[in-house]
Amino acid sequence: MSLADWMPEALLLMGPGGLALWQWLGLAVVVGLAWILGRVGAWLFTWLGSKIAGRTSTNLDDELLVKLRSPLRALASIGLVRFGTLPLELPPGAERRLYEILLALFAVSLVWGALRSIDVMTAHTSRAPWAVERPSTRSILALVSRIAKALVVVIAGIAFLSGIGLPVASLLAGLGIGGIALAFGAQKTVENLFGAVAIGVDRPFRDGDFVKVEDNVLGFVEEVGLRSTRIRTLDRTIVTMPNGRLSDMRIETYTLRDRIRLATVLNLVYETSAAQMREVLAGVEDVLRKQPAIWPDEIIVRFMQFGASSLDIEVMCWFITTDFNKFRVIRQDILLAIMDVVEKAGSAFAFPTQTVHVIGATTRADADRKATPSPKSTRA
Questions:
Q1: Which residues share a beta bridge with 241?
Q2: Burial (0-12, 13-18, 19+ Cβ within 10 Å), 226
């Protein structure tokens, strides 16, 4: 027996759309119940999901559950309507139209959920420490979010057009040709944009860092934009470098170093004796080890070589500081103390010298004397 056999004759009358009145009434009841049960099902799903997500260390899953509650509610209601209308014995034409409507609503709900997921992931990423430290990175994330949303909408639109029977292949071919032309025209722009994304993710430097780029540019990073990065040099000029090119360069960041190295060579005069050399070596090492700002694990003071005009001593150590101004002050104290050590040892610093032996030109008288034969040679 079908439901029509249980209905009164008044509800068996035909209504609009080729459906009986009881079928229209059944559709209304099914939609209402599906809406209520969909809300209950979505609430139960998010409640159970929040219990599981609460055990994780990240807040991303909790935010996704909150934002996806409405799309999940719509999906659950659509599914309940689909199964709830089966006992209504709808005519083939009406059932097909209902199926198409539900399928369209299902696709809209999926797109709705995808767009909300993109918003959640963008907001979560923008709150990360590396993004908070770089305001320009947040603008990049917003741009990436808009591009991702546009791709979702375009894909959904193509799927919809294909579903209603339009020739999507020719449309895609046209979009492909236009995309190729756009890619050639905006090649540098896209390259710089992806370079900015790479710099924001990899973080080779931050705003305010002191960097050296390819042994050519030395200065402070002022701003990392969507297209280029600005660096203020020591001459107070601004160097603007495209992000696409900058992401492929060798970048040396001085701000991130944990210690600052002092490396120098002491040039002593050749009159320095071996005893004086030993006294200088011991005195310089003692000066370095008594300085509390120097890393004590590796201090190098060694007689290095017999130079062209001096006896060379290698001195190398590391200062436990990242402040270059403080390093300058400590370095000055160290160098003055080394001068005192050299003076007390009785030695001195050498300066480049060169001995030139000059052979004078032969005078005309000497040449004539050599050309005139002697009496002894004449008699012989």
A1: 229
A2: middle
Q: Both tokens of residue 312? A: 């060379």
Q: Give the pLDDT confidence of 67-81 residue by residue, as tens digits.
A: 878 888 888 888 888
Q: Name the pairing type of β-strands 311-319 and 260-268.
A: antiparallel
Distance between CA atoms of residues 150 and 154, nearest Å: 6
Q: Give the predicted TM-score (pTM) of the model.
A: 0.50
**Vertex 72 angle, CA 74 and 88, to 5°:** 40
What integer pLDDT is reported at residue 39 of this predicted model?
Answer: 82
Pick the CATH number of 192-253 from 3.40.50.880, 2.30.30.60, 3.30.590.10, 3.20.20.370: 2.30.30.60
Q: Which CATH architecture has domain 258-380?
A: 2-Layer Sandwich (3.30)
Phi, psi values for residue 348, rounded to 5°: -155, 160
What are the beta bridge partners of residue 210? 220
- pLDDT tens, 31-64? 888 888 888 877 887 777 777 766 766 676 677 7
Amino acid making up residue 215: D
